[in-house]
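Lab meeting, item 3. Inverse folding demo.
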């Protein structure tokens, strides 16, 4: 059976899961434990040095994929359902995915910076046994993991204002593109999509909103949800949050 290793609260993992689910590709999901699970992940990827991250898909034929877009493309060649990478939209999908990646990186830096000021949210990042037995230790361990993540992916040194500009530029472009698009369903009550048909571009840009207002279905503790919510952007882009929620209702059935 194909296995997907990921983090339940990660938008990158959600991009991969959504693609697999919408195409009806069977797989098992396994939660990745940062730090503790890294040695095994390095062995799986055959990468003993450098940066490693999830999601990682191990296909039933032994192939290993370590990028959400690559996983989505793999899924698109299997199963059935909406075509996520229609040939006529390839270039535009690639551009939108790149835009979403920049915005997601900026959103992650902003969310983790907020988390560093919230001991309760930091504790929620620690493994449950440590959290239950040692509350103060859990917060310190969570802080270590958050700072390590910020160092791992870089960009935090760019500063809050630079990250905010990146987020705003991406969200403004999303809003403008949706305003030009037609409803995706013949009845007119389906949510708008970026390119006409529902594609991976919609999945990718919807995940940018995780760092504005996490969806209700996302498994987060109350304190972690505070950190991932961006008060500066939540009200300003309430229409896009509503669009994301409509997209989930229409296309996220699994």
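The presenter then showed the designed sequence:
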């Amino acid at each position: 059976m194909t296995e997907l290793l990921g983090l339940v609260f990660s938008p990158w993992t959600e991009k991969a899961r959504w693609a697999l689910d919408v195409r009806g590709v069977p797989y098992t999901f396994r939660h990745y434990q940062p730090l503790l699970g890294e040695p095994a992940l390095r062995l799986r990827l055959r990468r003993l040095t450098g940066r490693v991250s999830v999601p990682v898909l191990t296909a039933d034929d032994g192939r290993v994929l370590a990028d959400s877009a690559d996983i989505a493309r793999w899924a698109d060649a299997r199963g059935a359902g909406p075509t996520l990478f229609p040939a006529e939209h390839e270039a535009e999908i690639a551009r939108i995915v790149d835009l979403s990646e920049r915005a997601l990186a900026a959103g992650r830096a902003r969310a983790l910076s907020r988390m560093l000021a919230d001991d309760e949210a930091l504790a929620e990042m620690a493994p449950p046994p440590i959290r239950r037995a040692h509350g103060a230790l859990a917060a310190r361990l969570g802080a270590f993991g958050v700072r390590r993540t910020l160092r791992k992916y870089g960009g935090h040194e760019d500063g809050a204002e630079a990250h905010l500009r990146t987020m705003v530029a991406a969200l403004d472009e999303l809003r403008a593109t949706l305003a030009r698009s037609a409803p995706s369903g013949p009845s007119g009550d389906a949510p708008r999509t970026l390119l006409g048909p529902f594609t991976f571009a919609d999945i990718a840009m919807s995940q940018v909103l995780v760092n504005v207002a996490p969806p209700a279905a996302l498994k987060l503790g109350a304190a972690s949800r505070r950190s991932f919510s961006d008060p500066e952007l939540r009200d300003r882009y309430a229409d896009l949050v509503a669009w994301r929620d409509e997209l989930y209702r229409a296309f996220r059935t699994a």
